[in-house]
Amino acid sequence: MTYFIDRRPNAKHKSAVNRQRFLERYRKHIKRSVEEAVNRRSITDMERGENVSIPAKDISEPVFQHGPGGARNIVSPGNKEFVAGDKIRRPSGQGGGGGAGEGGPSNQGEGVDEFAFTLSREEFLEFVFDGLELPHLQRKPLKSLEEVKMVRAGLSRDGVPSRISITRSMREAYARRIAMRAPIKRALREAIDALEAEERKDTVLRNPTRIAELKAEIERLEKRIAGVPFIDTYDLRYHQLSAQPQPSNQAVMFCVMDVSGSMTQNHKDIAKRFFLLLYLFLEKHYEKVELVFVRHHTAAREVSEEEFFYSRETGGTIVSSALNLVNKIIEKRYPVGQWNLYVAQASDGDNWDDDSNICRDLLVKQLMPQLQYYAYVEITPHDHQSLWHEYESVVKEFPERFAMRQIVEAGDIYPVFRELFKRRLSQS
Predict the structure, then answer these.
(1) Domain 251-420, what fold?
(2) In what helix (H) or strand (E) does residue 405 lie, and over which residues does it extend?
(3) Which of 160, 319, 311 is nearest to 238 (CA)?
(4) Is the separation of the CB atoms in 52 and 30 below 8 Å?
(5) Is the sign of the CA dihedral 229, 232, 237, 238 positive or negative?
(6) 145 pLDDT exceeds 50?
(7) How does pLDDT run across 150-181, given as a tens digit for each residue?
(8) CA 283 from chain center: how many Å?
(9) Angle, to 10 degrees, between the axis of helix 27-40 and the axis of helix 121-128?
(10) Which of 53, 85, 88, 113 is the most exposed place for a label (fewest CB within 10 A)?
(11) How far apart are CA 42 and CA 87, in angstroms?
């Protein structure tokens, strides 16, 4: 019988395996609590865990117990009141009021509090971004040798035990045993034949000395055959691994934010929250995603992360300046054949009179043929303006790769984000 012992270390006083099993079992309840927490707290406060409560009735387990009535034998340790044959009075039933999860108003009975526990930062973000992904992410041709995959590259006589090839090692051992035993077996057959021939001779002609020598030779050869090892270190073969370059799934996300005078402080705060949520999502799920931050009013500039979120610069509105800058950066630094290209734009929809048509042409003719996905969020409680209407024509041209949503207040950020980056069943 084979015994498997799991010696994987768990954290002190915790069982990681049981915790993961618990999180998976009550995933629906935890996800609902996480969504409520996201709507309560600010996006800048997303990097800490969360206290989650599950109603007691939802974690109750079925229990087998004896029904009422019948004759039963019970051992009651420490009993000083009853003896065998006594009848025990039924419970009055007035003290057992509310059971688990029945915590309604009452002057009697007992209840059970909700089961509460704390999600770590990693677990919290896992539930926040569950079911989300970058749409249409593709494997691009190799750009550098950083991304490799270890593949088998033949066999070697040297290696570590975890890479041993059982089948090839046993085959080598079998071949070695055949090769080592063949001449011994041939000599053994000859000795046996000679012994039989000697024993068939008449008693007068039989040579006792020769017979003794043959028997000793046979015994020696049989010991040599038995001494051939079943497997030897010479037989062992190990899988050889080599690093094989792999196509890269690297991507770049352009974060484009309108900071013109028409964007109120509330609009800018909502845009920053949206991009912070996007930043956390990319940081959590992707290792090879670069971020390019672009701010624009009448002119667009590529800025640092710090300046993107906290600069106080403002001005008029020409959206095409940002789109032109994004196109130039792509041509200069991010070849289409090597990068997955994404753009997320946040604006209040206000734009210079004749610039919206230019934006549409830039998207249809230059940007969208290169991009994997374009997400546009318009932050306004009012009716849509010309930019939105021009973008609707872009949606008709690229229905799978161009998406636009409206955000009215801060509570809309998370639902809109999930709609824009929800997991697709198929990728183009």
Answers:
(1) Rossmann fold (3.40.50)
(2) strand 402-407
(3) 160
(4) yes
(5) positive
(6) no
(7) 777 888 888 888 888 889 999 999 999 999 99
(8) 14
(9) 90
(10) 85
(11) 64
